[in-house]
Amino acid sequence: MVETMEKNFAKIKEIVCEILELEEDEVTDEGLFTEEYGADSLRAIEILGALEREFGVVIDQAELARMSHLRGVYDVVSETAGWAK
Question: Which pathway does this chain act in (predicted)?
Fold first, then answer.
């Protein structure tokens, strides 16, 4: 189960980094996308769409406020997909 969580987190990080055009070692779990990495609302929507396609879920756009860093993104996807914590 831990391995699956790590794989899912790694995939989420890969998607986020690709969209934000950052190297994975530049992004921390708690680094704020907007303030630290210069992301805008369009990038947030791109991330949301990519995550929906990758994990086969539908994420409510109201959750975007919680998706301000990698840990928040993982939490939202995890809850939406019904992954055990």
Answer: Lipid metabolism; fatty acid biosynthesis
